[in-house]
Each structure stands twice: as structure tokens, then as C-alpha cells.
Write a structure and sequence with these properties.
Elements: H1 4-18, H2 23-37, E1 42-49, E2 52-59, E3 70-71, H3 76-82, E4 88-90, E5 115-123, E6 126-135, H4 146-162, H5 168-172, H6 175-184, H7 186-189, H8 194-206, E7 213-216, H9 223-232, E8 241-245, H10 251-259, H11 276-279, E9 284-288, H12 295-307, E10 309-311, E11 318-320, E12 324-329, H13 333-338, H14 344-350, E13 353-356, H15 367-382, E14 386-389, H16 391-399, H17 405-421, E15 426-427, E16 430-433, H18 456-461, H19 469-487, H20 492-498, H21 503-512
Parallel strand pairs: 7-12, 7-13, 8-9, 9-12, 14-16
Antiparallel strand pairs: 1-2, 1-6, 2-3, 4-5, 5-6, 10-11, 15-16
Helix pairs in contact: 1-2, 1-4, 2-4, 6-9, 12-14, 15-17, 19-20
Length: 516
């Protein structure tokens, strides 16, 4: 039976949530009030996006939970909650795995949830998401008053609607486009740091326009994912996006790859062939590593950007194309222009809207969110019930400087997950990753950007101590290469020469070391 004290408490909750605050803060406050009213070890608010649930706020759960994505088809408890129009409580001995097993932040060693309930939130009659409550002790929710819980859920739904959770993006893009965004761009753009929020705002600003965009940033920050997001938020979202890796285009075939060729144009041209620009007609072309494009091809690309015309190799016919240009580079193109390695007129055509993707070291609070997303993906690949980080691993991830950025984090966690899962490190199907499984030594890592202006031995002094000889050699090579690239102001060709390597071998070495 509901009590006056409960309604007094509910009124205070309404008053608190009625004040002006960002949506994220509103959701956190909501969960705080929920746990005060209905004591539990953890609660979560998740939004339904296609066939997955995305956490918007959590309380009592590991911070990396916010970066995870819960596929409905892989989580039967969440599927059952979504299939019901009333609160669902699971028996303590239910054989259905709980999505938060191993993620509740508890001081003791218990990892499994033993009391769980959840309810679907409906906005304007449509399922919007779910609210979940979990406890480590069986019987925790025995005393919950159904009427009180129903009243709180009504308040939650009203608060969610007031916060405007259905974004303008979801209202204007198709279901297929939203699916592509989730499939291709979610992990790279996860993050609540100020710089990532600013980046998403920039994407929303420039995407609906037809302006050429130049995406700048270090290797591994996710420039391709930003390009995908720009395309998917543009008016061309239902058209093709063609990807071109300029660094992988040998000068001898670059023109044919970009603009196509006619039959007989050269030895081996046995038929007419459309180039990347023709394939992208009506859509978007993404020119990745644009700084690697030979000067001879830069002139032909400039003509296309100026007039919208292409000419196949071996043909005199001009072909009109309507293509939105997005380019990306980890080079300093201004320096490349000054040194004569990049055309000034092409640079200004490409950099109509320059956009910088922040390095991971500037996104400290996002590291664990990204880690959660990558661990969730590795669970599926390794067929593991749950991958979790212990406190030491979290601390190590947060203290490391990430010279390889998001890509390095993803690869590091994949290795760690594999090592941990194959050594019997399991408790009830849960694999715990400790700092010992991570190939990093935060305190031995040099600050990124602090280039050692000395000999190879100087570079070796900054190497973090990996777990085996091959890792040590690879890390030494990375440090030495970074030093030479910085010494030659980002000019990779000059860096290759200084190391006694030809450009092709140097490029392959960069790829093997995950520096591209």
C-alpha cells in the first residue's frame, strides 16, 4: 500500500527533475532517486536503437558499461522485458544470464546478479527503452510495492519525454541509415568528453551542407568513422560512399583508379572501367590519407574539384560527376604546402571545412567507455559470457598516454581478452582482465609529442616495457619512426630516406606496426 511519505518523496523527485539540467545529468539524478526509493545494488536506463539497447545512465555499475551495446537477440532477459508491457522480475534461480553479471561495482568478490527486475518505458505508446534494477542478494525486491513502482515508472517516462531523448537525427534519417550508423560509427564516436561533444556538434553542423571537409588527426583516432558519420547525416545518406586509400595507390595506377580508363588505354586495359569518382556519382567520396597522393595526381584531382569533370585515361570525353568530397590526413598539410609536397590550390579546395579529431589522450574520461564497447565486441568473438576489467586494469588504461589512439586501445584489449580467456581466468563464465594482461606500462611511457631529439638509444629509453622480445622490438621501431617523422616535419618520404628505407617498404612497415 502506498504511503504519504512515498508521495512526499515523489513530489521532491519531481521538483528536482523539473529544474533545468542537461539530459545526461537528468538521467543520473533519476537513477539516484530510484535507488534511494527502491534500494538495489545497481540500476540502468537504456534506450532502444534498432535491435540493441544503449546505456544512457548507470548507477552502481562499472563505468565501461556506458560504452557497451546490448544486442537484444543476445540478452534474453532484456528481450523478455521489452516483450512485456509491465514490470518483469526474474527468479533468483533463473538460468537466463543477466546482462550485468560481472559489472556491478561491489567491494566483495561476488560477480553474479541474484535479483533482477526491469520494465519497458513507453513514450507516446511506443517502446522507447528499459529501466533495470539489479541486486547481488536474492530476495532484495520482495518488499517492493507494485503501485509505488508503477508511479515511479510513470515519472521516469515523463522525465524521459521531457528530456527530448528522440534526437533530431533519428527523426530525419531512415531506419536503414540509423542501422549503418550503429554498425559502422558507434564505437569510434563513443565518448562524453567535451572535445567529443564538440566534434559531434561540428559533424551535425557541416554534414547537411555540400562543403568539402578535411578531417585532421593522428593515426588511429577514427577519422574514417567521422567521415562515415558526416555522410550518414547528410542529404546523400541514401547514396553510396566510396572509400579511397590514397596511401595504397601506386602512382602508375592512381589516375586509373580515381578516374577510370578506356579499353586499350594501356597494356592490360581489356575493357572500359569506371573510376572511384564515377562510382561515387550522387554520393560521397572519402579520400583517406590524401597527403600521400603524388603531385601529378593532385593536379588532376584539382580539376575535378573545380569543374566537377573527370576524364578517363585514354579518353577525350569529359564526364560530369556530382560528388561530395571528404578527405583525411594525419599530416600537417600546411607544412607540406610550404615544402612543395602538396599543392596549395588543392589544399584550399579540400580544407573548406577543416575538422580536427582529438587524440585519445585528450579524452581521458572516454577511455573506459570505449573499453566497454570493445570488450562487448570481443565477448562475441571469443564466445565468453562476460569480459570485465578489474580496478588495476582500469587504472592502467586511464594512466596510459595512447600514442596509437583508439586503434591501439582496440587492439590492446583484443589481445588482453584473448590472453585472459585462454588461461582459465574465469568465474561462472566471467573473464576478468587484470593489468597483467595489458601490454602497457603507464609510468614508463613518454609523453606523446615530446619527441626525443637524439639518437636511437634516446628513443629506446622511452619505450614502455612489453611482455616479450618481439613487442619490445616493434615498440622500439615505432619510437624511432615517430622521432624521424617529427624531425622531418611530418614528411614520411624524408623520414624513410633517413632510415635507409625505400618509400614502399617504409609504408608496409608502418602498416605492420599499426601506424597508419
Amino acid at each position: 500500500m502506498t504511503t504519504p511519505n512515498f508521495f512526499t518523496s515523489l513530489i521532491s523527485v519531481v521538483a528536482d527533475l523539473s529544474s533545468h539540467m542537461p539530459s545526461e545529468q537528468r538521467y543520473r539524478r533519476l537513477l539516484q532517486h530510484l535507488r534511494q526509493t527502491f534500494p538495489c545494488d545497481a540500476s540502468a536506463l537504456l534506450r532502444l536503437e534498432g535491435r540493441q539497447l544503449v546505456p544512457l545512465a548507470v548507477s552502481g555499475l562499472s563505468e565501461d558499461t556506458l560504452g557497451r551495446r546490448f544486442a537484444i537477440d543476445e540478452h534474453p532477459r532484456l528481450a523478455r522485458i521489452l516483450a512485456s508491457d509491465r514490470a518483469v522480475r526474474f527468479a533468483a534461480d533463473s538460468d537466463l544470464p543477466d546482462p550485468y553479471d560481472g559489472l556491478i561495482e561491489a567491494e566483495d568478490a561476488r560477480l553474479l546478479v541474484h535479483d533482477c527486475m526491469g520494465v519497458t518505458l513507453f513514450i507516446d505508446g511506443e517502446p522507447w527503452g528499459v529501466l533495470t534494477l539489479d541486486a547481488l542478494g536474492a530476495g532484495t525486491f520482495d518488499g517492493i510495492d507494485p503501485l509505488q513502482f508503477s508511479a515511479f515508472i510513470s515519472l521516469t517516462a515523463a522525465s524521459v519525454k521531457a528530456a527530448g531523448l528522440i534526437s533530431s537525427l533519428e527523426q530525419r534519417v531512415s531506419y536503414a541509415t540509423r542501422t549503418l550508423i550503429k554498425k559502422n560509427a558507434d564505437h569510434g564516436l563513443i565518448g562524453e568528453s567535451e572535445c567529443m561533444q564538440a566534434l559531434r556538434n561540428e559533424i551535425s553542423t557541416v554534414a547537411p551542407s555540400e562543403l568539402a571537409v578535411l578531417i585532421l588527426g593522428e593515426t588511429g583516432v577514427g577519422k574514417e568513422l567521422v567521415a562515415q558519420r558526416i555522410h550518414l547525416e547528410s542529404a546523400r545518406a541514401d547514396q553510396v560512399m566510396v572509400y579511397v586509400n590514397c596511401a595504397a595507390l601506386p602512382e602508375s595506377i592512381a589516375e586509373s583508379e580515381l578516374f577510370g580508363h578506356s579499353k586499350g588505354a594501356f597494356s592490360g586495359a581489356v575493357s572500359d572501367r569506371a573510376g572511384k569518382f564515377e562510382l561515387a556519382d550522387g554520393g560521397t567520396i572519402f579520400l583517406d590519407e590524401i597527403g600521400e597522393l603524388p603531385l601529378s595526381i593532385q593536379a588532376k584531382l584539382l580539376r575535378t574539384l573545380q569543374n566537377g569533370d573527370i576524364q578517363r585515361v585514354g579518353s577525350d570525353r569529359q564526364i560530369k560527376v556530382d560528388v561530395r568530397i571528404i578527405a583525411a590526413t594525419n599530416r600537417n598539410l600546411r607544412q607540406e604546402v610550404a615544402s612543395g609536397q602538396f599543392r596549395s590550390d588543392l589544399y584550399h579546395r579540400l580544407a573548406v571545412y577543416p575538422m580536427h579529431v582529438p587524440p585519445l589522450r585528450d579524452r581521458e574520461k572516454d577511455v573506459l567507455l570505449l573499453a566497454g564497447a570493445f570488450l562487448e565486441k570481443n565477448q562475441q568473438h571469443l564466445d565468453v559470457k562476460k569480459l570485465r576489467l578489474d580496478s588495476g586494469a582500469k587504472k592502467a588504461l586511464q594512466e596510459y598516454h595512447w600514442p596509437g589512439n583508439v586503434r591501439e586501445l582496440e587492439h590492446l584489449l583484443s589481445r588482453a581478452a584473448l590472453k585472459a580467456s585462454t588461461r582459465g581466468n574465469r568465474q561462472s563464465g566471467i573473464v576478468t582482465i587484470s593489468a597483467a594482461y595489458l601490454d602497457i606500462a603507464p609510468h614508463a611511457q613518454a609523453e606523446p609529442g615530446a619527441v626525443q631529439d637524439g639518437t636511437a638509444s634516446d628513443a629506446a629509453a622511452t619505450v614502455s616495457i612489453p611482455l616479450d622480445f618481439k613487442d619490445a622490438v616493434d615498440e622500439f621501431q615505432r619510437q624511432l619512426i615517430r622521432q624521424q617523422i617529427a624531425r622531418h616535419h611530418g614528411n614520411r618520404a624524408a623520414a624513410a630516406r633517413s632510415l635507409g628505407l625505400d618509400r614502399g617498404n617504409f609504408h608496409r612497415l608502418l602498416k605492420r606496426l599499426a601506424m597508419l
